[in-house]
Write a structure and sequence with these properties.
The complex is a heterodimer. Chain A is built from 15 helices and no strands. Chain A is mostly helical. In chain A, helix 9 runs antiparallel to helix 10 (183-206), helix 13 (225-248) packs antiparallel against helix 14 and helix 14 runs antiparallel to helix 15. Chain A is flat and about 55 Å long. The relative contact order of chain A is 0.10. Chain B has a domain at 15-50. Helices cover 66% and strands 0% of the residues of chain B. Chain B has helices at residues 4-9, 18-49. The N and C termini of chain B lie far apart (64 Å). The chains are: A mainly alpha, B mainly alpha.
Chain lengths: 319, 58
């Protein structure tokens, strides 16, 4: 599926060709190019993955690993904005990004993103370990090539499959500490993987017009609002047992188990309300709440996992 | 050969505006800080790892 016409693409190129030869981009524009809000979530989940690992890295090496994972996420964000500049310009939510605003030329963004991607992988490999570096490289590749370039404009399952990229940071954190993989980071991966669709579909319900205008085949655009609500409920329901799995499988304590079950039930209840909402205004309000709550859900689950692990270390559980 | 008047009319180099100079300076400082931080980071990690700095298992 193509997103904009050839004429639009020519206009886009002409607009940048007529841009000033010398960039006026500020440091803030480059920071915005790295999607700092996404980066903060990546840093948080990667930190939890690293902290839960049975091998404890020296604090400087742990800091280096998190820094590299953050830079890798920033690189993926910059390359995503480079490729998606044409649709970002059409969508209200993204029109203020540095490339559509003309603050940074697409070529500058591509160069910045590539340099950051190579730099983050090489530094992680040299200073921490190459297994984590290889997974970071794969994550950037998956987000940029598989999600952004291949799936995003072709299938409504774009964020379901593409969500794997966002789910990998805790696994990279774990691998940075251990150099290998285990069941625990796979569970963290599954939690974020199943969390991504309801999170993004709640947003896409609010921005369906934007996506339709940009001809991005998000679920509400292709299959309609009601089907999207059903899918949100399905994934929210699946998230309850998967969210509780670290406790059920003995990798986390009761504090985490109760938090995961309560937060999962609250998310599923919101999804039910969204499915049953009849009036447009009420449905939009519930979708907004669902989107906001989904961020809180992921934060509280990972925070509970971290606190539970620290408590277990203090009282010597599982020792 | 270009006359003085022609050169004044058609400058053959880019003259930066104040805004461009300011943003370029800010970008240069940010880049210098990042590079300096990387040098310090590599130095500190070398001290931490000692001879093990050459041991990079997969």
């Amino acid at each position: 599926m193509t997103n904009i016409s050839a004429t639009d693409r020519r206009d886009e190129i002409a607009r940048f060709a007529s841009a000033p030869l010398v960039s006026e981009a500020s440091v803030g524009d480059y920071v915005a190019l790295m999607k700092p809000r996404v980066m903060s979530l990546v840093v948080f989940t990667a930190t939890v993955g690293l902290a839960l690992a049975p091998v404890h890295l020296h604090p400087v090496l742990a800091f280096t690993a998190i820094l590299c994972i953050a830079a890798g996420a920033g690189a993926a964000g910059a390359l995503n904005m480079w490729y998606d500049a044409d649709i970002d310009r059409v969508m209200t939510r993204t029109a203020g990004r540095p490339i559509p605003r003309g603050r940074i030329a697409p070529g500058e963004a591509a160069g910045f993103g590539t340099t950051l991607a190579v730099g983050s992988v090489v530094v992680l490999g040299l200073l921490v370990n190459w297994a984590a570096a290889a997974l970071l490289a794969f994550t950037i590749f998956f987000y940029v090539v598989i999600y952004t370039i291949w799936l995003k404009r072709r299938t409504p399952q774009n964020i379901v499959i593409g969500g794997a990229a966002g789910a990998l940071p805790p696994v990279i954190g774990w691998m940075a500490a251990t150099g290998s993989i285990g069941i625990e980071p796979i569970l963290l991966f599954l939690i974020i993987f199943l969390w991504t669709p309801p999170h993004f579909w709640a947003l896409s319900l609010l921005r369906a017009d934007d996506y339709a205008r940009a001809r991005v085949p998000m679920l509400p655009v292709v299959s309609g609002v009601q089907e999207t609500r059903r899918q949100i409920l399905l994934y929210s329901g699946l998230l309850i047992p998967i969210g509780a799995a670290p406790w059920l499988m003995g990798y986390a304590g009761l504090l985490y188990g109760v938090t995961a079950l309560a937060a999962g039930a609250a998310m599923a209840a919101l999804a039910c309300r969204l499915l049953l909402a009849r009036k447009a205004a009420a449905a939009a309000r519930t979708a907004g709440r669902m989107f906001a709550f989904s961020i809180f859900y992921l934060f509280i689950l990972f925070a509970a996992l971290l606190i539970d692990d620290r408590l277990a270390s203090l009282i010597g559980r599982g020792a | 050969m270009k006359s003085v008047a022609n050169v004044a009319e058609k400058p053959d180099r880019i003259v930066l505006t104040e805004a461009q100079k300011r943003s370029r300076r800010a970008r240069s400082i940010a880049l210098a800080l990042v590079l300096g931080a990387l040098v310090i980071l590599f130095y500190v990690v070398t001290l931490i790892k000692g001879p093990g700095v050459l041991n990079r298992p997969l």
